[in-house]
Every structure is written in C-alpha cells, then in structure tokens.
Amino acid sequence: MRCSSFTFFDCSIYFTIDMNEAQILATYKAILATTRQMLVAVEKNEWDTVNKLGQQCKQLTDTLTAHPIRQVLSKEAQKEKVALIQQIFACDAQIRAITEPGITRLHHYLSSVHKAFE
C-alpha cells in the first residue's frame, strides 16, 4: 500500500491512504500542537516562525482532507476528536484576536496609499 509522508518538527510521520483511528487522532493532535506553537510565535512577533508553522498546519490539514475517513470512529475517539477540534478553534481565535487589528490597520494604510496614487 502506498504511503504519503511529510516532515513534522524533526521527525517523519507516515500516513497510509486509509487512515486508521489512531492516525486520525494523531493528526488532530499534531494540528493542535502546531496551532499552539503558532500562538506562541504570534505573541512573540516571530512572523517567519508563524509562516513556517502555518505551512506545517496546512500540510496536516491537507492530510485529513486528502484521505477521506472511511472508518467510523469509536464513541471515545469521536469525543476526543471533537475536543481536539474545539481546542484548535480556541487557539485559532486567540491568534486572530492578536493579528486582525494589525491586518485591518495595514489594509487601511494600503487603501489610503492606493487612493493617493489615483
């Protein structure tokens, strides 16, 4: 069976085409860990790190969407998955709360510069 792989932190994680329950949960845990690291990097204004972690997060997310879940998760695994997703959303909300004001200011600045050259 063919496997896809990617580098996450300093190790390689391999996922088979049909992800099993443990692999699915491991992927959500990796997304949460990456999102938490992104939050720390945002708080420290380490934008290169944020970008790198964002790319890692996208790879992980793409892994989930590229391999449709054909297996029904156990009730326990489903609860864990939901809890992980809620934590991911909470970190994402914190990241957006920090970054959106700066993005809004940048948008207004660029709009005013654009209008000045019209």
UniProtKB/TrEMBL annotation:
Keyword Chaperone: yes
A Pfam family assignment: FliT
Top-level taxon of the source organism: Bacteria
GO biological process entries: bacterial-type flagellum organization
Compartments in which it is found: Cytoplasm, Cytosol
InterPro entries recorded: FliT (IPR008622)
Major localisation: cytoplasm
Keywords associated with the record: Bacterial flagellum biogenesis, Cell projection, Chaperone, Cilium, Cytoplasm, Flagellum
Name of protein: Flagellar protein FliT
Source species: Nitrosomonas nitrosa
Species classification: Bacteria, Pseudomonadati, Pseudomonadota, Betaproteobacteria, Nitrosomonadales
